[in-house]
Each structure stands twice: as C-alpha cells, then as structure tokens.
C-alpha cells in the first residue's frame, strides 16, 4: 500500500471514530512528512488531489537503522487475519469463522523516519491492539509472549514493557502463553483481577459490560489479586478457574445474624469437554463456542461478539432461561434455531440495522 492509500485509510478511520492512538500517530506523521494541513481541505475531492511529494526523506541507511531500533521497541506482530464475514440471511450456507484484526501495531518500513523526531506526544508510547466483534487475532509481544485476542477485546502496553516488569492491561478476553522470565514478572491488569506470572499459559475474560471476570489456568502457576477488595492473594493450580462477580450478591453471616452484600469470589475445577477434547473456557481459540447451563442474557453477549450482530431480548422472562450447546461453523440463524430446540422462542432479523430481536413464543 502506497503512502497516499494509507493516508486515506487512516483518515477514514479517524472520521469514523475507529482509529487507535497508533493510527492517529501514523496519520500525523504522514501529514508532517508531506506537509499536509487537514484543516485547509474542505471536501473529500480536494483531499484526493493531494500530491504526495515527500519532504526530506531519510537515506536508505538511516531508514534501515531506524527499523532496527523499532524492532527492539515493539514486537513484530504475526497476525493471522482475513476480512470478517458479515452475517448473511437465513438461506446462507454455513460460513467458516474468519479472523480479522480491527487494529494492530503493524507499521511499514517506509515509516523508518519515525525515530528521527523526538518531539512526539506521550500517546505515541502507548501500544494498543484490539479486535472488533466477529474477529480474532494472534500477536506476539516484545518479550516473545504469544497472545490470542477474542472478539471485542483490547490489550494495551507502553514502551516501558520488559524493563522492570512486563505489564499489560486487558479489556475483553485473551489467551496468554507467557515467555518464561524470572527477572521480569508478567502482570495483567483487568477491571476486577490482577494477575502475576513468570511463565505459563492461561485464559482471562474481563469484558467491560459483563459482571463476571474469570481467569483459567492451563499450565504453570498463576497469582491472582483483586484491586477492588482487600482479600489478599490466591494462587491457582493447573485446570483451576477463579471467578469474580462484581454484582452485589447476598451472603448470610452467622455471627451477626444479618444478610450482608459481598461480591462473589469462587475457585472451581475445569476439564476437557468429552466430545470436543478442549477446555470450554479456551475453546474459542479453536473456533468453538461451548456453553453449559448459560442464561440467555449472558449467552446473547457471546453471540453478539461472535457474529458481530446486535441481539435484543424483548421479554425479560426469557433472559434467565438456561442453554447448553456447542457452535462451530453455524451462522447466527442456525445457532438461534438450535437454541429454540431447548426452549421455544421466535426471532426477527432486520437486515438494514443488522440486528435481531428475540421474542417469547405465545
């Protein structure tokens, strides 16, 4: 992709409010390189007529040196991505689940001049990788740690990563295979869980719009603490899961003979699904959506992210109905038809808004 095409792509993402901090930084750099003042263009036709004549391009030797410096600051990201398949009408055959990366930190060699200028804002030091609904991605962090991001998720780390600790922030769901490093603990911050490891593999789920946060250990050891509670720390063993529910529940206190409200923290065992040979909590990595006795209100959140579609439950009486199942290659309509076999309901699809409404069957 040439600089002009990239410039127009970044500008479109900015106009649609879908640009990351890295996108904005790259757009600003292109404007500076080609002396483009966005405020001086009043319409798209004028933008298309911009002549991209580079100013003071660095030499090939300078560019190569800058690229080597760049590789020491951020990981080369190995993203397995294709265009996301949008949900089609009921007659559509089963599509395969296709990965797409919403925003990654891939920057071309032609941007080697990035490190010639030291006057960038602090926002440029923040590295953000995110995935949109209906997509997944795999990345490699600067230390060699492998991260798989589920739909609608975002991971953030800054340029201090790896100096004293390896710290990231996660919103959504991700599977981590952490590179072992005794001197630099790997720390993950989420809204309700803080996780600390030296080298291990585990799954973390902490979506902003869900009350339940979970961490599931696959191998190694995982230290868990709770930023919103003074509960000390827990250490998970392989095939253990810690769950934190920030919805106020009720617990009976025998000493005070009163009902007191407390968020719920539980530890449970996880195991492989007998049929699928995969642990339910990490099945999404293999394009499988597995759920057991899950309330429809919670399952709908998964389906919205999985299929990139808006789903509304019209009747409150349906929200607590529980479902169990496995989805692999089904499209959203086939998935809903399968759920109807457990508990009858009807649904309608609005193509113009790409949305579904679920109704109680009379």
Descriptive overview:
The chain is an alpha+beta fold. The chain contains seven helices and 18 strands. The strands form three sheets. Strands 1, 2, 3, 4, 5, 6, 7, 8, 9, 10, 11, 12 and 13 form a 13-stranded mixed beta sheet that branches. Strand 8 and strand 9 (212-219) form a beta hairpin. Helix 1 crosses helix 2. The chain is flat, with a radius of gyration of 23 Å. Residues 55-60, 70-124 and 249-260 have low confidence and may be disordered.
End-to-end C-alpha gap: 55 Å
- Radius of gyration, in Å, reads 23 Å
Structural class based on helices, strands and sheet pairing: alpha+beta
Count the strands? 18
In percent terms, what proportion of residues is strand?
25-35%
Rounded mean pLDDT score:
76
How many strands, which pairing sense, and closed or not: the largest β-sheet? 13 strands, mixed
The run of helices and strands is HHHHEEEEEEEEEEEEEEHEHEHEE
Number of helices in the DSSP assignment:
7
Q: Give the CA-based shape.
A: flat
Helical content band: 10-25%
| Uncertain runs | 55-60, 70-124, 249-260
